[in-house]
Design brief:
- Belongs to the histone deacetylase family.
- Pathway: Ketone degradation; acetoin degradation.
- This protein has one domain: 3-Layer(aba) Sandwich (Arginase, Chain A), CATH 3.40.800.
- It has twelve helices and eight strands.
- The chain has helices spanning about 25-40, 40-45, 55-60, 65-75, 95-115, 145-155, 175-180, 225-240, 270-285, 305-315, 330-340, 365-380, and strands spanning about 5-10, 45-50, 120-125, 160-165, 185-190, 215-220, 245-250, 290-295.
- The radius of gyration is 19 Å and the shape is globular.
């Protein structure tokens, strides 16, 4: 297996553009790639582009009639069929929508194929992680579910156990739905409580008969210590029991305290700590360390997303960026030229990364501990583990 890591990138992914008033501004992708280059990470990883996902690949997850509806809306946005979630406020139709969505999906599928073949141990597609798209419809800014498609391709290639860990602030509902009751796929989602946030799913009791759908519903306001405690109290133990052959992770940056669409209070430093934890878990629990890392949500498109995903690229590429480093002025000039905003100055929020292990005991009156315990009680007995 090659020791190099892959960064999946094609400039054309920035055509995934719902319009100027939509929170999913594609500038977050171009600014991330600009920061990656400013730190020289495009030399530490092999930057490659995969072809767009074709119809046969898309149909591994999505219904044929839905793919046809996306194509039709892509050719004529005014005729988008809202019965498929297209042409809505969340998912406005735009010219070339099918091509841009299929290209992003192709990067994730290509990453999965390369890692499974052993061309690289790790691969990252920060343009991906569009985890809300359903087999028969668009949802939550997501047209094609590249994460589910990558997993489906791994299964098609012969993988018997794939683990998916999603730390986006929103529930990874589309991936869970795609593999509900499929014992070959373990899905773990840590997200803000569904009572408070889209898509309204992801309750701790929401699991299948084998306990392979795992949901940790975090209280609003959860910060670094609680978020990291929840992650480390659930994810490592389940991965150790499941023994995946590939780990796929989704790293939505919208858990950040500056994100405008949610209510968690996580710092860039904690996000980086979870990225590093996923890297370590891939090497600990997956033969060959096979790891595919994806982006996801994130709507603080200047201050947060580029820094978070540049850290992710560095971690994937075994070339971590020093959080204390001063961000190159060339990138800050690019930010100002493109957005008329002043970019951040360092790769850190200046937060200490600390948490308590679950083994140290839990507080039954603490809302975070209640959330973790609810998940463990719902899932662990089904997996033969002690809650």
């Amino acid at each position: 297996m090659s020791g190099r890591a892959l960064l999946m990138w094609d400039d054309a992914v920035t055509a995934y553009d719902f319009g100027p008033s939509h929170p999913m501004d594609p500038v977050r992708l171009s600014l991330t790639m600009g920061l990656v280059r400013a730190y020289g990470l495009d030399k530490a990883l092999d930057v490659v582009a995969a072809p767009a996902a074709g119809d046969s690949t898309l149909r591994l997850v999505h219904r044929e009639d839905y793919v046809a509806a996306v194509r039709a809306a892509s050719a004529d946005p005014g005729a988008a069929d809202q019965a498929y979630g297209l042409g809505t406020v969340d998912d406005p139709a735009f010219a070339g929508m099918h091509e841009a969505s299929a290209l992003i999906a192709g990067q994730s599928v290509g990453a999965a194929e390369a890692v499974w073949r052993g061309d690289a141990a790790h691969a990252v597609n920060f343009a991906g992680g569009l985890h809300h798209a359903m087999p028969g419809g668009a949802a939550g800014f997501c047209i094609y579910n590249d994460a589910a498609l990558a997993i489906a391709r791994l299964l098609e290639l012969g993988a018997e156990r794939v683990a998916y860990v999603d730390v986006d602030v929103h529930h990874g509902d589309g991936v869970q739905t795609a593999f509900w009751d499929d014992p070959r796929v373990l899905t773990i989602s840590l997200h803000e409580h569904p009572r408070l946030l889209f898509p309204g799913t992801g309750w701790p009791e929401e699991t299948d008969a084998d306990g392979t759908a795992v949901n940790v519903a975090l209280p609003a306001g959860t910060g670094d210590e609680g978020w990291l405690r929840a992650f480390h109290s659930v994810v490592p133990e389940l991965l150790a029991e499941f023994r995946p052959q590939v780990l796929v992770t989704q790293h939505g940056a919208d858990t950040h305290f500056e994100d405008p669409l949610a209510h968690l209070a996580v710092s860039l430093d904690a996000q980086r700590a979870v990225q590093e934890a996923c890297h370590a878990l891939a090497h600990e629990h997956v033969v060959g360390g096979k790891w595919v890392a994806l982006g996801g949500g994130g709507y603080a498109v200047v201050d947060v997303v580029p820094r978070s995903w540049t850290h992710l690229v560095g971690v994937v590429g075994h070339a971590p960026v020093d959080p204390a480093s001063v961000i190159p002025s060339s990138w800050r000039d690019e930010v100002f030229a493109r957005t008329r905003q002043l970019g951040p100055g360092r790769m850190t929020d200046g937060r200490a990364v600390l948490w308590r292990d679950w083994e140290s005991g839990y507080d039954p009156a603490d809302r975070l501990d209640q959330a973790v315990l609810a998940t463990r009680r719902a899932v662990y007995p089904l997996r033969g583990l002690l809650a």
